Amino acid sequence: MQITRDEALARYRQKFGSLAPITDEEFTLLTDHMHQKHFSRGEVILREGQVCRHFYFILQGCIRSFNLKEGKEVNVNFYFEDDTACDFASFREERPSEFYLVAMEDCTVYYSSKSEVLPVFLKETAFHMVLFRFFQQLFLKEETHSNTFKLLSPEERYAYVLENQPQYLKRIPMVYLASYLGVSRETLTRIRRKVG
Question: How does DSSP assign 110-146, residue by residue?
Answer without folding.
Answer: EEEEHHHHHHHHHH-THHHHHHHHHHHHHHHHHHHHH
